[in-house]
Amino acid sequence: MFHHSSKLQYTVRVDKPDPQFAKLLQQAIGGIEGEIRVAMQYFFQAMGARGDDRIRNILMSTATEELSHIEFLGHAVALNLEGAPVTAQEEAAKDPVVHAILGGANPRHLLSSGLSAMPVNANGVPFDMSHVYATGNIGADMMANVTAEAGGRVLASRLYNWTEDSGMKDMLSFLIARDTMHQQQWLAILEDMGGLKASLPVPNATPQSHEATEHSYYYLNTHLDQDAPEGRWSSGPSLDGRGEFSVKAQPEPLGQVPSLGKAKPNSGAQKEQI
Amino acid sequence: MFHHSSKLQYTVRVDKPDPQFAKLLQQAIGGIEGEIRVAMQYFFQAMGARGDDRIRNILMSTATEELSHIEFLGHAVALNLEGAPVTAQEEAAKDPVVHAILGGANPRHLLSSGLSAMPVNANGVPFDMSHVYATGNIGADMMANVTAEAGGRVLASRLYNWTEDSGMKDMLSFLIARDTMHQQQWLAILEDMGGLKASLPVPNATPQSHEATEHSYYYLNTHLDQDAPEGRWSSGPSLDGRGEFSVKAQPEPLGQVPSLGKAKPNSGAQKEQI
Amino acid sequence: MFHHSSKLQYTVRVDKPDPQFAKLLQQAIGGIEGEIRVAMQYFFQAMGARGDDRIRNILMSTATEELSHIEFLGHAVALNLEGAPVTAQEEAAKDPVVHAILGGANPRHLLSSGLSAMPVNANGVPFDMSHVYATGNIGADMMANVTAEAGGRVLASRLYNWTEDSGMKDMLSFLIARDTMHQQQWLAILEDMGGLKASLPVPNATPQSHEATEHSYYYLNTHLDQDAPEGRWSSGPSLDGRGEFSVKAQPEPLGQVPSLGKAKPNSGAQKEQI
Amino acid sequence: MFHHSSKLQYTVRVDKPDPQFAKLLQQAIGGIEGEIRVAMQYFFQAMGARGDDRIRNILMSTATEELSHIEFLGHAVALNLEGAPVTAQEEAAKDPVVHAILGGANPRHLLSSGLSAMPVNANGVPFDMSHVYATGNIGADMMANVTAEAGGRVLASRLYNWTEDSGMKDMLSFLIARDTMHQQQWLAILEDMGGLKASLPVPNATPQSHEATEHSYYYLNTHLDQDAPEGRWSSGPSLDGRGEFSVKAQPEPLGQVPSLGKAKPNSGAQKEQI
Amino acid sequence: MFHHSSKLQYTVRVDKPDPQFAKLLQQAIGGIEGEIRVAMQYFFQAMGARGDDRIRNILMSTATEELSHIEFLGHAVALNLEGAPVTAQEEAAKDPVVHAILGGANPRHLLSSGLSAMPVNANGVPFDMSHVYATGNIGADMMANVTAEAGGRVLASRLYNWTEDSGMKDMLSFLIARDTMHQQQWLAILEDMGGLKASLPVPNATPQSHEATEHSYYYLNTHLDQDAPEGRWSSGPSLDGRGEFSVKAQPEPLGQVPSLGKAKPNSGAQKEQI
Amino acid sequence: MFHHSSKLQYTVRVDKPDPQFAKLLQQAIGGIEGEIRVAMQYFFQAMGARGDDRIRNILMSTATEELSHIEFLGHAVALNLEGAPVTAQEEAAKDPVVHAILGGANPRHLLSSGLSAMPVNANGVPFDMSHVYATGNIGADMMANVTAEAGGRVLASRLYNWTEDSGMKDMLSFLIARDTMHQQQWLAILEDMGGLKASLPVPNATPQSHEATEHSYYYLNTHLDQDAPEGRWSSGPSLDGRGEFSVKAQPEPLGQVPSLGKAKPNSGAQKEQI
């Protein structure tokens, strides 16, 4: 069960409102790198977590933290929109510089939300929940979470570089820090479960008899005109300790030429196909 | 530039066509765990890869392989739909067992595609390209790729368990094997670049001065009624070697009570808000 | 800032797991009548609420409650999926009745989520955040909230009728009750602000000079072959007390025949259009 | 059956074409507050209306009117795009002011539609039909319709404020007026059916025995640090006359700690979960 | 401006309601081959039609007809859902055959729409307006319209084959007929404008100087292991009379090896990329 | 099976990077007129092609070519983004002209992709695979392909007109040429199968007994106030040689007034409807 306290998790200060930056911040709320995504991803993973109950606990706890991130980011968007012109008669709206800035703002902040945050990304595309990655497999889910936090910290760093507002920089430095920890904690769960090597290949419970293991450790070079680049992936023991890496170049197809023959009568095809 | 040869990368054999299994296989084509996704993800990552040219090379090579996976899976879907009834007059359509099976099939395999594969998932929802994760940051992208392959191998294992068709099991054992290698190779790139620790936190180029590091290594326990579970994440050195893990329980908000005050006149609010 | 306690807001009990009912319950999680929607709608309305701070307070408080509803519904879905067959070899999977039931289940509960809830509706379509209605106008937002709760209570009633599981009926009777209160509380806010009449027309701050009031109170009958039905809408004082209802039948167009003339050269049109 | 006459329902005049305003107007066509939405919503409600045939009649009649609104708004978009530059060689395109304005225009008006309206919102996101709210319950549907018209009138008022073109202001004043009437008429239907109180809670046909009525009339305050605000919702008779409002603060969870135990073998989980 | 008469364009009769067929019929309403699509496509093409005003006239007229098709199909869906069980207590719901049929029905017809039509396809996926193809180029638009009607007639034929209800067969035979005419009329417009040859290549107004004509008439065979099949496309005069067809086999890339070099500092990349 | 060579199909040269043009080019990658669409459409059509194996061969070959188009367009986007400012501190970012240009750029090229291409259109909306038109009917599919290539050539022509960069013009002239050929080749397949007339109406295998042929050849004029325009569609032999065109004006409805009567008890309706 969820509870709320009325203060924000972290202080939000905007020294100089900037409607364009409000648009950019939306990526951190409703983008695939954003906070709705991680909040919902951890929430649904928690609800489906089977096995070690500590993991469900951590997932739900961090889902809750991410909800608080949405909350202060939403406030940051609204503060960046404070005072934006809403009529063509306002002095600001007649200023060509303001006009240019508004051209780069999200018009729906004016038209649809009344100068406040929306669950959309920096292009105004609404977040959709297909981005909640939750498989019921802890290995796959932890990887998905590291991915989400890595993307989130890339985004926060880019936003940090793009603003000169010290309040916004302060808030983003907090987000950068929390994304550091969240990357760490999901990897630490894998450590706790025996380490990355023991987790591989995900799912590690798939019996090797279900796997055509002769195809499990070669790198397939599909380029016709270049050799495979050499590196950790091209030779030496595999990372799960079950095989040896090799390279397969100029691969020959192993299968047949596909053909479906004639179409069935009454199947909606043209006469010529039947 | 791409080329094609007419044979499939791997043999596709269906001993007993099954329209319900055709529906399930669609998840491996058009699901977020599927082959369109990885093909397009590696393709777009390749086109945006900056730095070590070997990585662009590998990304494009494996994108090409994944296109071949779409191709043989598409053939598998069509073969599972061979002979399905298309009119109410056919004997098969009158068989209650067939009728029940068709109730569990995707009706658009009959109505829309003429008994062949579609770029949709097992619910018939079309794949959308927002699932192409490509940040321009190699660390984030490699994690996204491991995630995709982990999800893919979980799916292939579940499909393997759900069928009794030996041809389908054979094809899926090949997919399971290739998903093993692809998990390996993306992690091997991180190894090649100095190892996971050196990559953390992603992006590792963000200066620590941009980060409120006092918030970078504590696990935040937002539960009111439970202590934080102990584990690798709650104490000891952080995984990037830059800090020490700790736990922050019963966290107090650090920010203000948010309030936006009155609405601006002419902003479309109610009189009572202005 | 959000907090969490480890128990569910309400008890979830499933006497007899039913994968088909798990699919139906998804509508209450990820449907437009579902809990993700109201949680996020009230959350974003709260973040954009200007004027009376009590309203922001109530919106955030109820958003928090709705998050708890997602949580127990998610548990209900997982419990309905407990024990569902995951391999073709299981006895249950060979039972024709079970087979028929699984044909009516969501295959992604098996393939994608590992037998747990997903943020999708009963068709497996992911929720998308465009359904978060939040205009910054309290009148419009309260109406949107009554609408959401009315739809939610219709859905909960239909689910209640469709199950015979006493645990599920108990849980749904709680949801029906809370949807009653939530309908009430949003209307009560309008009462508190002066009543529905005073709120109309939304936005009530739009000056009448911006309105072609000669068109504000007639019902337009666009049927060619039927008179307008008579009722409260066709005569008598308008509900906002500003006008008198009337009927306009067989309406004549007030505007011009539209024509755009020739296409511009170099605009990508055919020669014949230029 | 539908018919058409060649003139527009209302005159459209654009004194000074403005590609940026063309982009904003798209919200009134393809936004969730727009005309496609109400046209389709009333149309589908009409097709599913059971009970009093007057309501089906009104729904279809007003659906037809909304189609006419799409038509004149579409013409308004095209007229705002008249003369926009389509090649980099045109003088206008070289004017920095025009260039800035075009930066704020929808590039697909140039690239995709050939300078005419599209069924998208002001961000260029296509309308999707999930926003057609039609439950088969007249109470829920009328509320949804008031919501749609309230949102529509908020939008039309904001557009009115944002333009200085007298032709556009005239057209928008007509839309504001019709949105007034449409808010009125849907509420008038509820009046006609016995009034709002008799309609509550929606659906009013749900037996009270299906409802855990001990939870039906308390406001739940989930804030840990603030008392519930007092108002019409916190005490006194409920709006449906069936209960008394009260406040429940510091709510205790009523349910269990959820736990799903181990994962099933062969379910695609990690070994550690089984 | 639109008008309505209260009768349907064509009689709808359902001899034996069938909830599964109701689901299939949804494809003809909300599928990409369905009536919402053509109604909206012709409507938006009409609003953007420049040049010959007859074409705008025909587009709007046929858009109006397609709205009438939505209307009678919506009625057909509702009639197929008449009497479907809505509670688990009904006798019908306990019948295993009915149960199996309902497993193959759209659960949202029960849960969300109250036994009536929805603007979704046979998978329950809502129609989205990105499928409104309207370019402002008459040649491209007419082709898009023939495509839509061809897809529509394929679908109607498949539905016709799948039902044994004589009322439904009668209604579908009308749709098949109208789709015949609509294919004809869009092609007839091209005839009227000088014939298909004169329209090619679309847009026929693009100057040949904008085209690398040495690449305009060869068929590119990208297969490595098969010769190009011979046919009308491989030799002889081109269909626009401007060139000669030929085949280019084993094509060599004409471009460079792409490389983007290092990433920019502060661009969110890993250190290793900079 | 697919293969790759490391060079691009065609040279990409950008003389003067332009982030706004990078945004426009996205339409040619991820728009409905773009290359992802045709690549995937031909790919899925190939996988479902029944009948003449030459057609499958051509479809797959051209799908492969379109993948190469994505590749060089993706490179063109990245080159247009080369050197764009990524921090507010850069000189360029402070230049008002650059600032205005960036206001018209896609912010996600900066925030999400690290200055490279994305699978989105010029509005930043991701491509979704519902636009893969593949019916299993060769006639319908070839029409869909001509439509796609006509739309593609319209787009390429508009992009050509909008840029002054000679490298971009050169690349676009190649695309314009290939779109010419692709329009030709899909029509040539219809020629090869007997010509357009023999293909009509699609599907040509539908028996005339399934068609209410008395409705197959009249143009329906739904305008109340205008006569049907005369032209090839209004009189003379039909294009399939099976009938005579005529005009039906002032059409009378052929069907009934629809009414659904009362709602079923327990179906979630209001009391007044039952």
UniProtKB/TrEMBL annotation, chains A, B, C, D, E, F:
Q: Which organism is it from?
A: Fulvimarina manganoxydans
- Which residues are recorded as binding Mn(2+) 2? E66
User: Could you tell me the superkingdom of the organism this chain comes from?
Assistant: Bacteria
In terms of SUPFAM superfamilies, this protein maps to: Ferritin-like
Q: How is the cofactor bound?
A: Binds 2 manganese ions per subunit. Binds 1 Ca(2+) ion per subunit.
Give positions of region: Disordered: 229-274
GO MF annotations, alphabetized? metal ion binding
Please name one Pfam family that this protein belongs to: Mn_catalase
- Give cofactor(s), names only: Mn(2+); Ca(2+)
> Which residues of this UniProt protein bind Ca(2+)?
N221
User: Which annotated residues bind Mn(2+) 1?
Assistant: E35, H69, E149, H182
Which UniProt key words apply to this protein?
Calcium, Manganese, Metal-binding
Which protein is depicted? Mn-containing catalase
Q: In which family does this protein belong, per the annotation?
A: Belongs to the manganese catalase family.
